[in-house]
Amino acid sequence: MIPQLNLRRVYLIARRDFLGYIKTWGFWISFLMPFVLFTVAFFAARLDINVDPVRYEAILDETGQHEMAIRDYDQAQRPELPIELPQGQMPANKNIYVSPPADNIDALKNYLTGQNKFEVDGKAVKLSALLHIYEGPSGVKADYWADNINNQRLKNVSNRYFRKIAEGKYLGAAGLSSDGLSEARAAAIKVNVFDPGKSGEGGQAVTFIDRIPNLVSVAATMLLWLTIFSGAYMLLTSMLEEKLNKLLEMMLSTTRLSEIMIGKLIGVAALTITAMLPYIVLMLAGAVFFLASPVGAAVLQAITPKLIFFFILFLALGYLFYGALFIAMGSLAESMQDAQTLTTPIMLVLSACVMVIPLSLNSPDSPLLTFATWFPLSAPFAAIARLHLDPPWWELLLSASFLFLMSLLVIWIAGRIFRYGILSGAGVKGVSDWFKRAVLRRKA
């Protein structure tokens, strides 16, 4: 039976929930933060800002054979790397080779720890990293010393250098050369990818542009998941706050339970869409900015009316489905701890639904993904993730219809739980007592 609703009261409740968040400083900070971060990242990229500190690296080569060879190898790999520090100039990469300030490893350890310092361009600095090459019992050995164990650039360069030397010796023993191996690799046959179902000016060869629709569907799925997750969680906190502050009891004196529930769904839905607008605007702006490039044009071409229609449809249905569940759990909770306990299963289900994203990237034709399109808990996300395959309209509409019916059932059940939790003042203990009476036939 459809409950009687006063649209004005529903509107007032929705407006109260919407404006209650909109008027806070926290909302506007969160709303503007994506634009701020994008602006900072844009100018940082344009100005080529490097936040890494200057690192002075030395090579103590007791064999006298590898120090300059490693430097030359690193220079060949990264031509912008300076061999010596330019006078009065800061290099972009901030990795500087210097001569070892001491001739033995024990003395150099004090420079690595900062106990001793040496001068570079009139400035006292600390040694950041040291590569120690020496003769061991079974041949040449190399040790890497650094106080910052997470930065191992010099070690990685040295590993590649010594691997190249070992390959050269192995090939040389057979009368071959490293250059010949590189030429052989360059001449190797490359497997081209073709799609028999593709047609157009570019032929049937598959390029990165052909994967754009799949990536757009994945991005839409992620946006859908974030919107539903954030909206449903805001519903939970709003419901719990009003229950604990006795505001719901005051609202019930003039408003029906159904009006409160539907008003909250609408208000938080509008709030969630508003909160996601910065990300939508930035994505569209990025696509328009790169419109002149083939990638930008392919992105805009992938945003079809079909994608927009079903994104909005499954967003509404998924939000109703999960939002009703969170409202029901919020009405039963008596504290934030209760709410976290009650909503943990729903959170786990929502987290599991994210697995459709890697599945749609690697196996979009998987039967599991098809099943997920019909399973109510994952239908909103799986249906959007499969849109790049252009499934027939009837299949998507049938999936949406089934999700709509399940949403109505969930809303009806949630309404009963909502009524039980609010009017009866019941919480987790009340549900436990009911379960003992009705199911286990025990006295509470």
How would you characterize this protein structure?
The chain folds into 2 domains: 7-35 and 208-438, no CATH class; 55-182, no CATH class. It has 17 helices and 6 strands. The protein has helices at residues 7-22, 25-47, 67-77, 105-113, 153-173, 178-186, 212-244, 247-251, 257-289, 294-302, 305-332, 336-353, 356-362, 367-374, 379-385, 393-423, 428-438, and strands at residues 55-61, 95-98, 118-120, 123-125, 129-136, 139-146. Strand 3 (118-120) and strand 4 form a beta hairpin. Helix 7 packs parallel to helix 11, helix 9 (257-289) packs antiparallel against helix 10 (294-302) and helix 11 runs parallel beside helix 16. The relative contact order is 0.09.
Give the CA-based shape: elongated
* Sheet with most strands: strand arrangement: 2-1-5-6
Assembly category: single chain
User: pLDDT average, as an integer?
Assistant: 79
Which structural category do the helix and sheet elements fall into?
A: alpha/beta
**What is the N-to-C succession of helices and strands?**
HHEHEHEEEEHHHHHHHHHHHHH
Helix content: 55-70%
First and last CA, distance: 32 Å
| % residues in beta strands | 5-15%
Report the major sheet: 4 strands, mixed
Count of DSSP helices? Answer: 17
- Whole-number count of domains: 2
Rg (C-alpha, Å): 32 Å
Using DSSP, what is the number of strands?
6
Query: Which consecutive residue ranges, at least 5 long each, have pLDDT under 50?
Result: 85-92
